[in-house]
Amino acid sequence: MEYGFLSVIPPIVAIILALKTKQVYIALLLGIWFSWLIIKGWNLLDGTLAMIEGMVNVFQSEGNTRTIMFSALVGALLIFIQYSRGVEGFINILNRRLVKLEEKKTGYSRVMVQVLATVTGLLLFVETSISSLTVGTLYRPIFDKLGIPREKLAYIADSSSAPSSILIPFNAWGAFIMGLLLTQGIEKPFSVMMASIKYNFYPLIAIAMVFAVILSKKDFGPMKKAEKRTKETGELMNPDSKPMVSDAVTSFPPKEGIPAKAYNMIVPLLVMVCMMPINLIYTGWDAVKEASSFLNHASQAIGEGSGSSSVLYAVITSLLVAMVMYFIQGIMNPKEAIELTLKGISELMPLALLMLLAFAIGDACKELETGIYVANATKDWLSPELLPAVVFIISSFIAFSTGTSWGTFAIMLAISVPMATIHGADITIVVAATLGGGIFGDHCSPISDTSIISSMASASDHIDHVKTQLPYALVGGAITTILYLIIGFMG
Protein backbone atom coordinates (compact mmCIF):
# COMPACT_ATOMS: atom_id res chain seq x y z
CA MET A 1 0.00 0.00 0.00
CA GLU A 2 1.18 3.54 -0.83
CA TYR A 3 0.97 6.02 2.05
CA GLY A 4 2.28 9.06 0.17
CA PHE A 5 2.74 12.25 2.16
CA LEU A 6 1.24 10.56 5.27
CA SER A 7 4.48 8.55 5.61
CA VAL A 8 6.42 11.72 6.43
CA ILE A 9 4.07 12.96 9.19
CA PRO A 10 4.94 10.55 12.12
CA PRO A 11 8.69 11.32 12.23
CA ILE A 12 7.96 15.06 11.88
CA VAL A 13 5.43 14.84 14.75
CA ALA A 14 8.01 13.00 16.91
CA ILE A 15 10.71 15.59 16.23
CA ILE A 16 8.49 18.64 16.85
CA LEU A 17 7.15 17.10 20.09
CA ALA A 18 10.68 16.21 21.27
CA LEU A 19 11.92 19.76 20.71
CA LYS A 20 8.81 21.42 22.17
CA THR A 21 8.16 19.25 25.23
CA LYS A 22 11.72 18.02 25.97
CA GLN A 23 10.07 14.63 26.60
CA VAL A 24 11.84 12.39 24.08
CA TYR A 25 10.16 9.19 25.32
CA ILE A 26 6.64 10.56 24.90
CA ALA A 27 7.51 12.12 21.52
CA LEU A 28 8.88 8.83 20.20
CA LEU A 29 5.97 6.81 21.57
CA LEU A 30 3.46 9.13 19.89
CA GLY A 31 5.43 9.02 16.65
CA ILE A 32 5.39 5.19 16.69
CA TRP A 33 1.69 5.10 17.59
CA PHE A 34 0.83 7.59 14.84
CA SER A 35 2.78 5.49 12.30
CA TRP A 36 0.88 2.31 13.12
CA LEU A 37 -2.42 4.19 13.20
CA ILE A 38 -1.82 5.20 9.56
CA ILE A 39 -0.74 1.65 8.60
CA LYS A 40 -3.85 0.16 10.24
CA GLY A 41 -6.22 2.55 8.44
CA TRP A 42 -6.83 4.82 11.47
CA ASN A 43 -8.30 1.96 13.53
CA LEU A 44 -7.49 2.99 17.12
CA LEU A 45 -7.46 -0.50 18.63
CA ASP A 46 -5.53 -2.17 15.78
CA GLY A 47 -3.08 0.74 15.63
CA THR A 48 -2.38 0.64 19.36
CA LEU A 49 -1.90 -3.16 19.43
CA ALA A 50 0.33 -2.96 16.33
CA MET A 51 2.44 -0.30 18.08
CA ILE A 52 3.01 -2.66 21.05
CA GLU A 53 3.88 -5.54 18.69
CA GLY A 54 6.16 -3.19 16.73
CA MET A 55 8.19 -2.52 19.88
CA VAL A 56 8.32 -6.27 20.68
CA ASN A 57 9.50 -6.94 17.11
CA VAL A 58 12.53 -4.68 17.62
CA PHE A 59 14.08 -7.66 19.41
CA GLN A 60 13.55 -9.87 16.35
CA SER A 61 16.55 -8.08 14.89
CA GLU A 62 19.67 -9.58 16.46
CA GLY A 63 21.57 -6.36 15.71
CA ASN A 64 19.04 -4.24 17.61
CA THR A 65 19.06 -6.61 20.60
CA ARG A 66 22.87 -6.58 20.74
CA THR A 67 22.96 -2.76 20.59
CA ILE A 68 20.42 -2.48 23.44
CA MET A 69 22.39 -5.05 25.50
CA PHE A 70 25.61 -3.11 24.80
CA SER A 71 23.95 0.14 25.95
CA ALA A 72 22.93 -1.49 29.25
CA LEU A 73 26.27 -3.23 29.91
CA VAL A 74 28.18 0.00 29.35
CA GLY A 75 26.57 1.24 32.60
CA ALA A 76 28.29 -1.60 34.46
CA LEU A 77 31.65 -0.68 32.91
CA LEU A 78 31.23 2.99 33.88
CA ILE A 79 30.50 2.07 37.49
CA PHE A 80 33.40 -0.43 37.57
CA ILE A 81 36.05 2.07 36.50
CA GLN A 82 34.76 4.67 38.97
CA TYR A 83 34.56 2.19 41.86
CA SER A 84 38.18 1.13 41.19
CA ARG A 85 39.36 4.78 41.40
CA GLY A 86 40.58 4.42 37.80
CA VAL A 87 38.86 7.63 36.62
CA GLU A 88 40.30 9.46 39.63
CA GLY A 89 43.82 8.21 38.79
CA PHE A 90 43.51 9.35 35.16
CA ILE A 91 42.21 12.78 36.22
CA ASN A 92 45.11 13.18 38.67
CA ILE A 93 47.61 12.60 35.83
CA LEU A 94 45.81 15.06 33.53
CA ASN A 95 45.51 17.63 36.31
CA ARG A 96 49.27 17.54 36.92
CA ARG A 97 49.86 18.17 33.21
CA LEU A 98 47.27 20.95 33.13
CA VAL A 99 48.79 22.74 36.13
CA LYS A 100 52.10 22.89 34.23
CA LEU A 101 50.31 24.19 31.13
CA GLU A 102 48.44 26.81 33.17
CA GLU A 103 51.73 28.07 34.62
CA LYS A 104 52.95 28.77 31.09
CA LYS A 105 49.79 30.46 29.79
CA THR A 106 46.48 31.29 31.50
CA GLY A 107 43.41 29.69 29.95
CA TYR A 108 45.59 27.32 27.93
CA SER A 109 44.52 24.18 29.84
CA ARG A 110 40.85 24.82 29.00
CA VAL A 111 41.65 24.81 25.28
CA MET A 112 44.04 21.84 25.52
CA VAL A 113 41.52 19.62 27.32
CA GLN A 114 38.93 20.26 24.60
CA VAL A 115 41.49 19.51 21.88
CA LEU A 116 42.52 16.31 23.71
CA ALA A 117 38.87 15.21 23.97
CA THR A 118 38.36 15.80 20.22
CA VAL A 119 41.54 13.91 19.26
CA THR A 120 40.50 11.01 21.53
CA GLY A 121 37.11 10.87 19.77
CA LEU A 122 38.76 10.86 16.32
CA LEU A 123 41.24 8.12 17.23
CA LEU A 124 38.45 5.79 18.42
CA PHE A 125 37.07 5.46 14.87
CA VAL A 126 36.43 1.72 15.34
CA GLU A 127 32.91 2.38 16.65
CA THR A 128 30.87 5.55 17.26
CA SER A 129 29.33 4.30 20.50
CA ILE A 130 32.75 3.50 21.99
CA SER A 131 34.14 6.85 20.76
CA SER A 132 31.43 9.13 22.21
CA LEU A 133 31.18 6.98 25.34
CA THR A 134 34.91 7.10 26.08
CA VAL A 135 35.18 10.85 25.42
CA GLY A 136 32.19 11.62 27.67
CA THR A 137 33.31 9.32 30.50
CA LEU A 138 36.99 10.28 30.48
CA TYR A 139 36.73 14.02 30.12
CA ARG A 140 33.52 14.86 32.01
CA PRO A 141 35.20 15.28 35.45
CA ILE A 142 37.95 17.48 33.96
CA PHE A 143 35.46 19.56 31.93
CA ASP A 144 33.39 20.01 35.10
CA LYS A 145 36.44 21.12 37.06
CA LEU A 146 37.49 23.64 34.40
CA GLY A 147 33.93 25.02 34.14
CA ILE A 148 33.20 23.84 30.58
CA PRO A 149 29.45 23.27 30.03
CA ARG A 150 28.19 19.71 29.61
CA GLU A 151 26.64 20.72 26.27
CA LYS A 152 30.15 21.46 24.91
CA LEU A 153 31.40 18.01 25.96
CA ALA A 154 28.38 16.32 24.32
CA TYR A 155 29.03 18.35 21.13
CA ILE A 156 32.70 17.32 21.03
CA ALA A 157 31.82 13.65 21.71
CA ASP A 158 29.11 13.63 19.00
CA SER A 159 30.97 15.61 16.34
CA SER A 160 34.18 13.60 16.61
CA SER A 161 32.62 10.11 16.65
CA ALA A 162 30.47 9.50 13.53
CA PRO A 163 32.59 11.76 11.23
CA SER A 164 35.78 9.83 12.03
CA SER A 165 34.00 6.45 11.68
CA ILE A 166 32.85 7.34 8.16
CA LEU A 167 36.16 8.92 7.08
CA ILE A 168 38.29 6.01 8.38
CA PRO A 169 35.97 3.15 7.39
CA PHE A 170 38.04 0.22 8.75
CA ASN A 171 35.17 -0.67 11.04
CA ALA A 172 31.57 -1.89 11.09
CA TRP A 173 30.49 1.26 9.21
CA GLY A 174 32.78 0.44 6.30
CA ALA A 175 31.60 -3.17 6.28
CA PHE A 176 27.97 -2.12 6.23
CA ILE A 177 28.47 0.42 3.40
CA MET A 178 30.46 -2.07 1.28
CA GLY A 179 27.64 -4.60 1.70
CA LEU A 180 25.08 -2.03 0.52
CA LEU A 181 27.22 -1.06 -2.50
CA LEU A 182 27.62 -4.74 -3.43
CA THR A 183 23.84 -5.19 -3.49
CA GLN A 184 23.68 -2.27 -5.95
CA GLY A 185 25.88 -4.20 -8.36
CA ILE A 186 29.12 -2.29 -7.68
CA GLU A 187 31.91 -4.80 -8.31
CA LYS A 188 34.64 -3.04 -6.32
CA PRO A 189 32.79 -1.53 -3.34
CA PHE A 190 35.96 -0.92 -1.28
CA SER A 191 37.62 1.23 -3.96
CA VAL A 192 34.36 3.19 -4.57
CA MET A 193 33.97 3.80 -0.84
CA MET A 194 37.60 4.92 -0.45
CA ALA A 195 37.38 7.15 -3.55
CA SER A 196 34.24 8.81 -2.14
CA ILE A 197 36.01 9.95 1.07
CA LYS A 198 37.60 13.04 -0.53
CA TYR A 199 34.11 14.22 -1.59
CA ASN A 200 32.53 13.51 1.81
CA PHE A 201 32.57 17.17 2.83
CA TYR A 202 30.21 17.24 5.82
CA PRO A 203 32.27 15.01 8.20
CA LEU A 204 35.45 16.90 7.22
CA ILE A 205 33.78 20.28 7.87
CA ALA A 206 32.21 19.03 11.15
CA ILE A 207 35.65 18.02 12.49
CA ALA A 208 37.26 21.26 11.25
CA MET A 209 34.50 23.27 12.97
CA VAL A 210 35.09 21.56 16.32
CA PHE A 211 38.77 22.56 16.21
CA ALA A 212 37.92 26.08 14.96
CA VAL A 213 35.40 26.65 17.78
CA ILE A 214 37.83 25.36 20.44
CA LEU A 215 40.94 27.21 19.25
CA SER A 216 39.18 30.52 18.45
CA LYS A 217 37.14 30.36 21.72
CA LYS A 218 34.27 31.78 19.64
CA ASP A 219 30.92 30.07 20.17
CA PHE A 220 27.59 31.08 18.67
CA GLY A 221 23.89 30.35 19.16
CA PRO A 222 22.70 28.40 22.25
CA MET A 223 26.26 27.14 22.90
CA LYS A 224 27.40 30.74 23.46
CA LYS A 225 24.61 31.12 26.07
CA ALA A 226 25.70 27.83 27.69
CA GLU A 227 29.32 29.04 27.92
CA LYS A 228 28.14 32.39 29.34
CA ARG A 229 25.92 30.62 31.92
CA THR A 230 28.78 28.40 33.12
CA LYS A 231 31.22 31.30 33.29
CA GLU A 232 28.85 33.56 35.23
CA THR A 233 27.02 31.11 37.49
CA GLY A 234 29.24 28.01 37.52
CA GLU A 235 26.17 25.97 36.44
CA LEU A 236 27.27 23.17 34.09
CA MET A 237 23.70 22.69 32.84
CA ASN A 238 20.48 24.70 32.59
CA PRO A 239 18.51 24.80 35.89
CA ASP A 240 15.62 22.73 34.44
CA SER A 241 17.91 20.21 32.71
CA LYS A 242 17.49 16.47 33.07
CA PRO A 243 20.84 14.72 32.45
CA MET A 244 20.64 11.53 30.38
CA VAL A 245 22.31 9.55 33.20
CA SER A 246 21.57 9.57 36.90
CA ASP A 247 24.26 10.71 39.36
CA ALA A 248 24.61 7.09 40.48
CA VAL A 249 26.49 6.35 37.23
CA THR A 250 28.32 9.66 36.73
CA SER A 251 29.58 10.07 40.28
CA PHE A 252 29.46 6.61 41.81
CA PRO A 253 31.39 6.62 45.13
CA PRO A 254 34.79 4.92 44.69
CA LYS A 255 36.03 2.21 47.06
CA GLU A 256 37.75 3.72 50.08
CA GLY A 257 41.26 2.88 51.24
CA ILE A 258 42.74 1.99 47.83
CA PRO A 259 45.17 4.07 45.72
CA ALA A 260 43.87 5.85 42.60
CA LYS A 261 45.52 4.15 39.62
CA ALA A 262 44.88 5.38 36.07
CA TYR A 263 45.49 1.92 34.57
CA ASN A 264 42.34 0.62 36.34
CA MET A 265 40.42 2.74 33.85
CA ILE A 266 42.78 2.82 30.85
CA VAL A 267 43.22 -0.99 30.57
CA PRO A 268 39.46 -1.90 30.45
CA LEU A 269 38.73 0.93 27.97
CA LEU A 270 41.75 -0.03 25.84
CA VAL A 271 40.59 -3.67 25.84
CA MET A 272 37.14 -2.55 24.65
CA VAL A 273 38.64 -0.48 21.81
CA CYS A 274 41.18 -3.13 20.71
CA MET A 275 38.64 -5.98 20.84
CA MET A 276 36.43 -4.20 18.30
CA PRO A 277 38.57 -4.88 15.15
CA ILE A 278 39.57 -8.33 16.54
CA ASN A 279 35.88 -9.26 16.91
CA LEU A 280 35.11 -7.91 13.42
CA ILE A 281 37.84 -10.21 12.01
CA TYR A 282 36.59 -13.16 14.07
CA THR A 283 32.90 -12.75 13.13
CA GLY A 284 33.72 -12.23 9.45
CA TRP A 285 36.52 -14.81 9.09
CA ASP A 286 34.42 -17.72 7.74
CA ALA A 287 32.59 -15.49 5.26
CA VAL A 288 35.80 -14.82 3.28
CA LYS A 289 35.88 -17.16 0.27
CA GLU A 290 39.43 -16.68 -0.99
CA ALA A 291 42.43 -14.71 0.26
CA SER A 292 46.04 -14.41 -0.90
CA SER A 293 47.53 -14.08 2.61
CA PHE A 294 46.63 -13.93 6.31
CA LEU A 295 46.62 -10.11 6.23
CA ASN A 296 44.44 -10.10 3.13
CA HIS A 297 42.06 -12.59 4.80
CA ALA A 298 41.93 -10.40 7.95
CA SER A 299 41.24 -7.18 5.99
CA GLN A 300 38.42 -8.89 4.07
CA ALA A 301 37.05 -10.40 7.31
CA ILE A 302 36.75 -6.89 8.84
CA GLY A 303 34.47 -6.03 5.92
CA GLU A 304 32.34 -9.13 6.52
CA GLY A 305 32.19 -8.96 10.34
CA SER A 306 29.14 -8.08 12.45
CA GLY A 307 29.38 -4.58 13.96
CA SER A 308 26.74 -5.13 16.64
CA SER A 309 28.29 -8.47 17.71
CA SER A 310 31.76 -6.93 17.83
CA VAL A 311 30.62 -4.06 20.06
CA LEU A 312 28.78 -6.38 22.44
CA TYR A 313 31.68 -8.86 22.67
CA ALA A 314 34.10 -5.94 23.20
CA VAL A 315 32.20 -4.54 26.21
CA ILE A 316 31.74 -8.03 27.74
CA THR A 317 35.50 -8.77 27.34
CA SER A 318 36.30 -5.38 28.86
CA LEU A 319 34.04 -6.13 31.87
CA LEU A 320 35.68 -9.55 32.41
CA VAL A 321 39.20 -8.07 32.19
CA ALA A 322 38.20 -5.34 34.67
CA MET A 323 36.78 -7.95 37.08
CA VAL A 324 39.97 -10.06 36.96
CA MET A 325 42.16 -6.96 37.47
CA TYR A 326 40.10 -5.77 40.42
CA PHE A 327 39.89 -9.27 41.99
CA ILE A 328 43.72 -9.56 41.87
CA GLN A 329 44.12 -6.10 43.48
CA GLY A 330 41.51 -6.90 46.14
CA ILE A 331 39.33 -4.00 44.99
CA MET A 332 36.21 -6.14 44.70
CA ASN A 333 34.97 -9.68 45.29
CA PRO A 334 32.55 -11.70 43.08
CA LYS A 335 29.52 -10.59 45.13
CA GLU A 336 30.42 -6.88 44.69
CA ALA A 337 31.07 -7.47 40.97
CA ILE A 338 27.56 -8.86 40.45
CA GLU A 339 25.94 -6.09 42.53
CA LEU A 340 27.82 -3.34 40.65
CA THR A 341 27.00 -4.92 37.27
CA LEU A 342 23.28 -5.01 38.11
CA LYS A 343 23.47 -1.45 39.50
CA GLY A 344 25.12 -0.19 36.30
CA ILE A 345 22.62 -1.96 34.04
CA SER A 346 19.66 -0.61 36.03
CA GLU A 347 20.99 2.97 35.84
CA LEU A 348 21.26 2.73 32.05
CA MET A 349 17.80 1.27 31.51
CA PRO A 350 16.46 4.70 30.38
CA LEU A 351 19.06 4.70 27.59
CA ALA A 352 18.18 1.11 26.58
CA LEU A 353 14.49 2.11 26.49
CA LEU A 354 15.31 5.12 24.33
CA MET A 355 17.24 2.85 21.95
CA LEU A 356 14.21 0.53 21.79
CA LEU A 357 11.92 3.44 20.86
CA ALA A 358 14.42 4.82 18.31
CA PHE A 359 14.60 1.41 16.59
CA ALA A 360 10.81 1.02 16.72
CA ILE A 361 10.16 4.36 14.99
CA GLY A 362 12.81 3.43 12.39
CA ASP A 363 10.97 0.16 11.71
CA ALA A 364 7.63 1.99 11.49
CA CYS A 365 9.10 4.48 8.98
CA LYS A 366 10.39 1.54 6.94
CA GLU A 367 6.90 0.03 6.93
CA LEU A 368 5.48 3.39 5.78
CA GLU A 369 8.27 3.65 3.16
CA THR A 370 9.06 7.20 4.33
CA GLY A 371 12.50 7.22 2.70
CA ILE A 372 11.32 5.82 -0.62
CA TYR A 373 8.48 8.38 -0.77
CA VAL A 374 10.91 11.28 -0.20
CA ALA A 375 13.27 9.95 -2.88
CA ASN A 376 10.54 9.29 -5.45
CA ALA A 377 9.00 12.72 -4.90
CA THR A 378 12.20 14.30 -6.25
CA LYS A 379 13.08 11.89 -9.06
CA ASP A 380 11.34 13.63 -11.97
CA TRP A 381 12.78 17.13 -11.69
CA LEU A 382 16.39 16.24 -10.94
CA SER A 383 19.30 17.15 -13.23
CA PRO A 384 22.81 15.57 -13.00
CA GLU A 385 24.22 18.96 -11.86
CA LEU A 386 21.81 19.13 -8.92
CA LEU A 387 22.01 15.43 -8.05
CA PRO A 388 24.83 15.48 -5.40
CA ALA A 389 23.32 18.47 -3.53
CA VAL A 390 19.79 17.05 -3.66
CA VAL A 391 20.92 13.55 -2.59
CA PHE A 392 22.75 15.17 0.36
CA ILE A 393 19.58 17.10 1.38
CA ILE A 394 17.28 14.06 1.02
CA SER A 395 19.68 11.85 2.99
CA SER A 396 19.84 14.54 5.67
CA PHE A 397 16.06 14.73 5.89
CA ILE A 398 15.66 10.94 6.15
CA ALA A 399 18.39 10.70 8.84
CA PHE A 400 16.81 13.63 10.71
CA SER A 401 13.34 12.04 10.52
CA THR A 402 14.36 8.51 11.44
CA GLY A 403 17.33 9.25 13.73
CA THR A 404 19.55 6.64 12.10
CA SER A 405 22.40 7.21 9.67
CA TRP A 406 22.70 3.45 9.01
CA GLY A 407 19.00 3.23 8.15
CA THR A 408 19.46 6.23 5.86
CA PHE A 409 22.40 4.59 4.07
CA ALA A 410 20.28 1.47 3.55
CA ILE A 411 17.36 3.46 2.11
CA MET A 412 19.30 6.04 0.13
CA LEU A 413 22.12 4.03 -1.47
CA ALA A 414 19.43 1.83 -3.03
CA ILE A 415 18.00 5.01 -4.60
CA SER A 416 21.01 7.29 -5.16
CA VAL A 417 23.26 4.72 -6.90
CA PRO A 418 20.65 3.89 -9.61
CA MET A 419 19.87 7.62 -9.92
CA ALA A 420 23.58 8.38 -10.48
CA THR A 421 23.64 5.70 -13.19
CA ILE A 422 20.45 7.03 -14.86
CA HIS A 423 21.67 10.65 -14.81
CA GLY A 424 25.26 9.79 -15.73
CA ALA A 425 26.62 11.44 -12.57
CA ASP A 426 29.92 10.56 -10.83
CA ILE A 427 29.11 7.59 -8.60
CA THR A 428 31.79 8.43 -5.99
CA ILE A 429 30.40 11.97 -5.46
CA VAL A 430 26.83 10.67 -5.15
CA VAL A 431 27.90 7.96 -2.65
CA ALA A 432 29.79 10.63 -0.63
CA ALA A 433 26.73 12.92 -0.64
CA THR A 434 24.53 10.03 0.56
CA LEU A 435 26.88 9.13 3.43
CA GLY A 436 27.55 12.76 4.43
CA GLY A 437 23.81 13.52 4.43
CA GLY A 438 23.23 10.58 6.79
CA ILE A 439 25.78 11.98 9.25
CA PHE A 440 24.45 15.57 8.97
CA GLY A 441 20.82 14.55 9.55
CA ASP A 442 21.93 12.35 12.45
CA HIS A 443 23.74 15.31 14.07
CA CYS A 444 20.56 17.42 13.87
CA SER A 445 18.08 14.78 15.03
CA PRO A 446 16.82 14.48 18.63
CA ILE A 447 16.02 10.79 18.00
CA SER A 448 19.52 9.83 16.81
CA ASP A 449 21.12 6.95 18.73
CA THR A 450 24.65 8.43 18.44
CA SER A 451 23.41 11.79 19.79
CA ILE A 452 21.60 9.98 22.60
CA ILE A 453 24.81 8.12 23.58
CA SER A 454 26.80 11.39 23.44
CA SER A 455 24.30 13.05 25.80
CA MET A 456 24.37 10.02 28.07
CA ALA A 457 28.18 9.77 28.26
CA SER A 458 28.47 13.52 28.89
CA ALA A 459 25.62 13.49 31.45
CA SER A 460 24.02 16.33 29.50
CA ASP A 461 20.35 17.10 28.95
CA HIS A 462 19.64 15.49 25.56
CA ILE A 463 17.47 18.26 24.08
CA ASP A 464 19.98 20.90 25.27
CA HIS A 465 22.70 18.94 23.45
CA VAL A 466 20.63 18.84 20.24
CA LYS A 467 19.82 22.56 20.45
CA THR A 468 23.43 23.64 21.08
CA GLN A 469 24.86 21.36 18.36
CA LEU A 470 22.22 22.27 15.74
CA PRO A 471 23.63 25.70 14.64
CA TYR A 472 27.11 24.20 14.13
CA ALA A 473 25.66 21.27 12.17
CA LEU A 474 23.49 23.61 10.04
CA VAL A 475 26.49 25.78 9.13
CA GLY A 476 28.42 22.64 8.11
CA GLY A 477 25.40 21.37 6.15
CA ALA A 478 24.95 24.69 4.31
CA ILE A 479 28.65 24.83 3.30
CA THR A 480 28.47 21.18 2.15
CA THR A 481 25.37 21.84 -0.01
CA ILE A 482 27.12 24.81 -1.70
CA LEU A 483 30.22 22.67 -2.36
CA TYR A 484 28.09 19.93 -3.96
CA LEU A 485 26.35 22.50 -6.17
CA ILE A 486 29.74 23.89 -7.29
CA ILE A 487 31.06 20.38 -8.04
CA GLY A 488 27.82 19.46 -9.84
CA PHE A 489 27.90 22.46 -12.17
CA MET A 490 31.69 22.36 -12.70
CA GLY A 491 31.55 18.65 -13.61
TrEMBL record:
TM region(s), chain numbering: 24-45, 65-86, 199-216, 262-285, 311-328, 340-361, 389-415, 470-490
Annotated localization: Cell membrane
One Gene Ontology term, aspect cellular component: plasma membrane
Key words of the record: Cell membrane, Membrane, Transmembrane, Transmembrane helix
Record membrane topology: Multi-pass membrane protein
Residues annotated as domain Na+/H+ antiporter NhaC-like C-terminal: 189-489
Superkingdom of origin: Bacteria
Coiled coil residues, start to end: none
Chief location bin: membrane
Name assigned to this protein: Sodium:solute symporter
